From TrEMBL:
Name this protein carries in UniProt: Unannotated protein
Length: 218
């Protein structure tokens, strides 16, 4: 028989997050299963708030200073929604931080992909130099490429066809414009996935080519 849910204070839960993230997640899961939505929401907000410095550090590497607060808030909301929808299986603080960092990166990538939060003012292109490991998106050749804003529907459609794992690769390599070696390091440290730079480039190149092919058919 499942023991009854016993609510604890936000202060006690905050200490639990640091001491034993697995129990902290289990507490949130128990609250939700018991129908104690308010307790689950409060605990989840504390959980994510304790990672606010991490979220800010991830976001600040990838967005302009004037967008930082707005995108950080969006990333935090995404993390809260993710926990409430499906509390993750996490055994330690490192895994918790890795999980939150991935959500933050994916939110920044979604901002770049669909033009929310003023980033539509930038003109992104799907062209990049095969010899330049860093230029996944070439901002200087929009007139010769395919504008990510104008072709957003095509990009979104192709993105939805990817597996969840390949979406993350595309998020990091193309939409966050990270070097392949850095993508490989992130995938290993935060997800435990073993990739080689060549694998990352192949996935990114295939996605780019499929988007461009779909644009040509219009």
């Amino acid at each position: 028989m499942t023991p009854p849910f016993r609510q604890i204070t936000n202060e006690a839960f905050s200490a639990l997050v640091e001491a034993d993230p697995e129990k902290a997640i289990a507490y949130i899961r128990s609250a939700l299963q018991a129908g104690e939505l308010k307790a689950g929401q409060d605990a989840t907000q504390v959980l994510v708030f304790r990672q606010s410095n991490l979220i800010r550090a991830v976001v600040s590497k990838n967005v302009r200073a004037d967008l930082l607060d707005e995108v950080c808030d969006g990333a935090s909301l995404k993390a809260i929604e993710a926990v409430l929808a499906n509390p993750p299986e996490l055994a330690n603080l490192k895994q918790l931080r890795g999980w939150v960092a991935i959500i933050a990166r994916r939110h920044v990538a979604s901002v770049a992909r669909d033009g929310r939060e003023q980033i539509r003012r930038e003109a992104y292109s799907l062209n990049y130099d095969e010899d330049d490991d860093h230029a996944a998106i070439d901002l200087e050749t929009v007139e010769r490429g395919y504008d990510m804003v104008a072709y957003r529907a095509i990009i979104d459609n192709q993105y939805e066809l990817l597996s969840d794992e390949h979406r993350l690769v595309v998020d990091l390599r193309i939409f966050l414009d990270l070097p392949s070696k850095e993508v490989v390091a992130i995938l290993l440290s935060e997800c435990g996935w073993e990739y080689k730079p060549n694998n990352v480039d192949q996935i990114a190149r295939r996605f780019r080519d499929e988007c461009i092919d779909a644009a040509k058919e219009q």
